[in-house]
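Project outcomes to date are best conveyed with an example. Our students and postdoctoral researchers have been running inverse folding experiments weekly, and each run begins with a structure described purely in tokens. The record below, which covers 277 residues, was selected by the lab manager from last quarter's runs and is presented without edits.
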């Protein structure tokens, strides 16, 4: 294994989830001192253990990214205990299935608060530190393939992820002269705790068959697939890459984003959602 991050400090948000965890472990394995954050510190026990088992220095951080004060305090504690942050994987997010007509306003606001405002909070505070320290840095934002391809029953999720992509592009443009690079990753359907209820539930076989039929490489993604891309973009090997959105989806978006649910649009004034496509 390489040591691309020796001497660097990394922050991973949403690190209790599968993608955040896999990325944190990969960074720790490659020499980074890693701060792992999630909304509740106790959710991070497994991630902390895995990072330590990989030989890494790790700091667990209970931090609600929708709370600006908590973000400022949390990131200050990382700098105090591990050193200035060199790399950030802004990964924390929220998604919930609902039709546009029936989604409660509070769910819409939750998508905006977590996915957009929360990510803005973390990225801005980290970037301010990078600029102040004049060390440069790298930021990767998890924007999801939903940022470029609509998925029915996930309108709020896709809208906020599309906004994240544009946020990252703006950051890349403005932070370039401070030698801070910013890119987004666009994961397709990845086998995680978030997708498990759909893939193993009553319609799991139908969902899986439909998704696989729309995935040219013939399998769904693993968290390590995303971690490999993220760590590359955070490393000096990607020193000339910024403002880009890179898909890691096994080709799923070639034909449009795979659908969890579909309906027959030929029938006027009727909605009958069924699993798959």
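After processing, the design step wrote out the following sequence:
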């Amino acid at each position: 294994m390489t040591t691309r991050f020796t001497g660097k400090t990394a922050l991973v948000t949403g690190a209790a989830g599968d993608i955040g965890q896999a990325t944190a472990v990969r960074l720790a394995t490659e020499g980074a001192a890693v701060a792992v954050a999630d909304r509740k510190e106790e959710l991070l026990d497994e991630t902390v253990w895995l990072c330590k088992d990989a030989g890494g220095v790790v700091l667990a951080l209970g931090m609600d990214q929708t709370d600006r004060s908590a973000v400022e305090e949390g990131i200050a504690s990382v700098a105090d205990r591990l050193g200035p942050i060199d790399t950030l994987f802004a990964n924390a997010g929220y998604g919930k299935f609902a039709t546009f007509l029936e989604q409660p306003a509070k769910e819409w606001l939750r998508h905006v608060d977590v996915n957009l405002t929360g990510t803005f909070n973390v990225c801005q505070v980290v970037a301010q530190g990078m600029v102040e320290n004049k060390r440069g840095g790298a930021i990767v934002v998890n924007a999801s393939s939903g940022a470029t391809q609509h998925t029915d029953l996930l309108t709020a999720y896709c809208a906020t992820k599309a906004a994240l992509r544009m946020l990252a592009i703006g950051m890349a443009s403005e932070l370039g002269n401070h030698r801070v690079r910013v890119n987004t990753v666009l994961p397709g359907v990845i086998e995680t705790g978030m997708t498990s209820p759909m893939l193993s539930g009553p319609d799991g076989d139908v969902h899986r068959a439909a998704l696989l039929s729309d995935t040219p490489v013939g399998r769904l993604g693993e968290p390590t697939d995303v971690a490999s891309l993220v760590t590359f973009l955070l490393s000096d090997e990607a020193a000339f890459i910024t403002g880009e959105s890179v898909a890691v989806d096994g080709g799923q978006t070639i034909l449009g984003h795979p659908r969890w649910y579909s309906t027959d649009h030929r029938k006027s004034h009727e909605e009958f959602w069924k699993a798959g496509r």
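Residues 41 and 62 are 4 Å apart (CA to CA). The longest helix spans residues 105-133. The training component of this project remains on track.
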